Amino acid sequence: TIGDYDPCWLRYERIEDEALAEQYRKWCGNLTVLGSSPILESARDELTAGISSLLGVAPALSRDLRDFPSLVLTASAEGRGWVDRRVWEGLDEEGYLLKTVERGGDAFLLLLGKTDRGALYGAFHLLRLMQTRRPLHSLEIVENPGNRLRMINHWDNLDGSVERGYAGKSLFFRKGRIVRRLDRIRDYARLLASAGINAISINNVNVGPDECRLITGSLLPDVARLADVFRAYGIRMFLSVNFASPMWIGGLSTADPLDPEVRRWWRERAEEIYRHIPDFGGFVVKADSEHQPGPLTYNRDHAEGANMLAEALRPHGGLVVWRCFVYNFQDWRDRSTDRARAAYDHFKPLDGRFVDNVVLQVKNGPMDFQVREPVSPLFGAMERTNQMLELQITQEYTGQQKDLCFLVPQWKEVLDFDTHAAGKGSTVKAIVGGKVFPCRHSGMAGVSNVGDDRNWTGHTLAQANLYGFGRLAWNPDLSAEEIAEEWVRLTFGHDSRVVETLRDMLLESWRVYELYTAPLGVGWMVKPGHHYGPDVDGYEYSYWGTYHYADHRGIGVDRTMKTGTGFTGQYFSPNRERFESLETCPDELLLFFHHVPYTHRLKSGETVIQHIYNTHFEGVERVEDFIRRWTRLKGKIDAERYEHVLSKLREQLENAREWRDVINAYFFRKSGIPDEKGRKIY
Ligand code: GCU
């Protein structure tokens, strides 16, 4: 542990293979840093600490090439001179080159960033190569990030609580103030930067009266202290703001975005923020959503609201990240309204109206981070608007860091989904990577799963979700397998039994979670409020718009154009036809798009009801199997983490059994159809 907490994937355990360590020492025994800046110093410190720990000796530092360099860290013009012009020009602002070079009889390893931020990412890459025991000779690695914005959204409140947090209290806030000690925040910045993150919003999108003060003189000096820590690791600070702040803290009688006083108020706020934080990233805004105020109150639309804030930030280079999680509460009796339609219906008509320092942040699915949802049809539907993807790293609906659920495979499906917005190949990753439509700002945001628990994430294996989010935001083409194995090696070492077992458990875990929870894409069925554990009708007669419509004959939501809510019509062809038709709709999304009888046959050959029974029995068996596989690792993993994970898996088993029995009993009672295999249903 670093201090009192887990170093996660930055453990840098001593390399035992002496031959390999010797090879690494050859390339990293000396470290020459050309240039200086706070970020370059971070890169140097990371290399020094990492190399010392991995190789058992600190690299000899120099600022001069005459000292026979082995590793040269730079983002300077001098470094540029050693590489082909084409290579240099091919580097984006945060890109880097790692290259072994022979020069005048000397061999050295060049770590060249396009900027000092690129150099920092290159430093972490080099360390990762050693942590994963890769050879260093004849390296030629050129990397550019796949997304410009690679952001973490915290849902932390000033009192120290964390909305949907399952890992203790906030790292940033305690009792209405910002924490005094920053050493853990610095380690957090290191973790994030090492995974490729370059932006962070520190407070909840639900912004209360206390949090409004974050953009005032009373708290800005403290926010600036946090920003300093993150800046040294290339991470820009954002704040979530309340749209009604001019009324709550400004003493104005309105928050109307077209009111000149309101506009002036926000301009002055921006000026003060930038006096404290010159490179402030901007605002994250949840407006007209779940009781948060917004422009609609004043008969203004989302574009008018967002553009007003953007205008205040523009002179300083700030961004407005405007969230599209907007829907109306509804009457459960009303079958024509469909929450899934809402984001598209609200925002699509506004395409082209947002100024270019606004970026719309769209949740991956049309509902709300369920274990299985189709991709939001808004991706690619607004070709004249900046868009970014929002994922939920915190496991609100996917086991709350009690159950193992590695989300990278889910995110990969989202990123690889072909929207067909501009023909074949218009994948979500290409859209948010800015490769389909020209857009100034785009990328990925993930809702943090971190708190002040010793292991940061409640469940130690949930660290893999934070790591995986960062790695995917940097390179969405990485496979889930690569990320899982890399994380396991960095975090648990290289014993082949450990690597294989843990990698496979991670990769299977999302599917396993899906098996024992809500079936076939229907979602929800969770306990209202906290959202852990089963309650099939918990939201069925509520105003949240999250229904399954199960009766004695069948289940599912008819979202077709022909007989349902018409949601399928929001997709581009051929997705629209694929989801519309019962024949082509994928099994795993069947109940999201269609209402079918329990006797409907899936492509797998099973009936819906038998599928429900089978998957729920299987889900529990698979968790039992996780426990068996984990216990075989005893002695190969330190006792603390071994016991911790074991106790989490046992908790998960209880949860899975509860889900199995509630779901199976519910549908047996509704349908009257027994399990073909005669298993125990209560
Ligand atoms: C979910 C979550 C809320 C959160 C909201 C949001 O609905 O349950 O706690 O505020 O998403 O994303 O704004």
From TrEMBL:
GO annotations of cellular component type: extracellular region
Stretches assigned to the Glycosyl hydrolase family 67 catalytic domain: 130-456
Protein name in the entry: Xylan alpha-1,2-glucuronidase
An example Gene Ontology biological process: glucuronoxylan catabolic process
Keyword line: Carbohydrate metabolism, Glycosidase, Hydrolase, Polysaccharide degradation, Xylan degradation
Catalytic-site annotation from UniProt: 290 (proton donor), 368 (proton acceptor), 396 (proton acceptor)
Pfam families registered for this protein in UniProt: Glyco_hydro_67C (PF07477), Glyco_hydro_67M (PF07488), Glyco_hydro_67N (PF03648)
Source organism of this protein record: Planifilum fulgidum
Reactions that this protein is recorded to catalyse: Hydrolysis of (1->2)-alpha-D-(4-O-methyl)glucuronosyl links in the main chain of hardwood xylans
